[in-house]
Design brief:
alpha/beta; Arc Repressor Mutant, subunit A; Nucleotidyltransferase, domain 5; 3 domains; five-stranded mixed sheet; 11 helices; 24% strand; binds zinc ion
Length: 389
């Protein structure tokens, strides 16, 4: 590829991202490995790593590897130079964490939310971030990532729809920018969860994944070769509102305006509504009393996951379950229904994992969304450019 004309500063920024990305994925690594992986010359790598060591983004380990020539110390990501904040927004609280460059949580704070009016939620999120910063040392705050339940247009900074917040087309990123003087990235719960999963797990590097989340609402994250596929206005993964009615039951109205969406059967909201319709306790779900409703929810969820998975053929499928929906009957039933859909020999079953999807996990994932940008240069469509060459 012919290098595009660009300023030296831009080229340096791109090369730094490539170098940091190799260390993130494989660290601790030798400079020689960085050179061979990025295609940059040893001299350029020495120059870039020197700058990154100076800024604290990289540190030298005590491990010395003899690479044939001069023994060299290995490099790994620094832990003090920068932090990123992540906030998980719900209708009740803004839960913030601060993570270091390695994705380790170094501070947490929970700020109650009195109203779901967007400006008030933005103020609570800012307050939560400020509180975590009081626990941080002199690190630089890279930015704030925010996870919100619903459909989020990350590029436009708009929450397109959030049932739990009662929001439609809320320009939440610009509201946050008014109260936070750093870059802000917003994303859905499930995409934040997926980023938190992907960023520091070398096993998932470049993989295709489908991540399904089950909580008050349902969501899915489509990961293509290690990157989230967002689709038109961020609506990819919207399997919650696919039609699953078969005309046998009374119709189940969905909060989206349609009827018989998967959401009405397999989300906590849908399960609660069906339990209430059957005359049992409002809002509470009892796995023994409501076994039939939960079994139905599990079957529909498992089949829907398999349908999506067959279309896409990922190596791995993850079901992320929120604490309020963590019924063994649901997760085991959904997995069984999922596997039950793979009966043909020519359709291998993807690896299937259930994971806990706690609020703090989502806040960390939102922070990882910010961190991820440090390691990404390819958004500009450029390759590593050797200035010496
Ligand atoms: Zn719906």
């Amino acid at each position: 590829m012919k290098p595009r004309a660009g300023s030296k500063a831009l080229i340096r920024e791109i090369n730094e991202a490539f170098v940091l990305d190799v260390v993130r994925a494989q660290g601790p690594v030798a400079r020689a490995t960085i050179a061979s992986q990025t295609g940059l010359s040893p001299a350029t790598v020495t120059g870039i790593t020197g700058q990154l060591l100076g800024s604290g983004l990289l540190v030298e380990t005590d491990v010395v590897r003899d690479t044939g020539g001069r023994p060299a110390r290995l490099l790994e990501l620094g832990h003090d130079a920068v932090v990123a904040a992540g906030v998980r927004i719900s209708s009740k609280e803004a839960r913030a964490v601060l993570v270091n460059l390695r994705g380790e949580v170094v501070a947490e704070h929970r700020e109650p939310i009195a109203s779901t009016e967007p400006p008030e939620v933005a103020a609570a999120a800012a307050k939560a971030v400020q509180a975590t910063l009081r626990h941080a040392s002199a690190s630089t705050l890279l930015g704030v990532g925010v996870a919100i339940s619903g459909v989020v247009d990350q590029e436009g900074g708009i929450v397109k729809h959030s049932g739990s917040m009662g929001w439609e087309d809320v320009p939440f990123r610009s509201l946050l920018r008014r109260v936070l003087s750093v870059p802000v990235v917003i994303d859905s719960y499930v995409n934040s969860f997926a980023v938190g999963l992907l960023l520091f797990d070398g096993r998932l590097e470049g993989q295709n994944l489908l991540v399904f989340s089950a909580s008050a609402s349902l969501g899915a994250s489509v990961v293509v070769e290690g990157r989230i596929h967002r689709g038109f206005t961020g609506a990819a993964g919207g399997f919650a509102h696919s039609y699953v009615g078969c005309g046998v039951d009374p119709q189940r109205p969905c909060h989206c305006g349609a009827v018989d969406c998967l959401e009405t059967r397999s989300s906590l909201w849908g399960i609660q509504a069906e339990v209430a319709r059957r005359g049992a306790g409002e809002g509470s779900v009892d796995p023994v009393r409501d076994a039939e409703v939960i079994a139905d929810a599990a079957t529909h969820l498992g089949v829907a996951m398999a349908n999506a998975s067959k279309m896409f053929a990922p190596e791995r499928v993850v079901l992320a379950v929120a604490p309020e929906l963590d019924f063994a009957e649901l997760t085991a039933g959904a997995e069984q229904a999922f596997r039950g859909q793979y009966v043909h020999e020519n359709a291998p079953v993807p690896l299937f994992e259930s994971m806990a999807n706690a609020p703090a996990t989502l806040a960390r994932g939102a922070a990882c969304t910010v961190l991820g940008r440090l390691f990404t240069a390819d958004a500009s469509g450029l390759e590593a450019v050797d200035q010496a060459g």
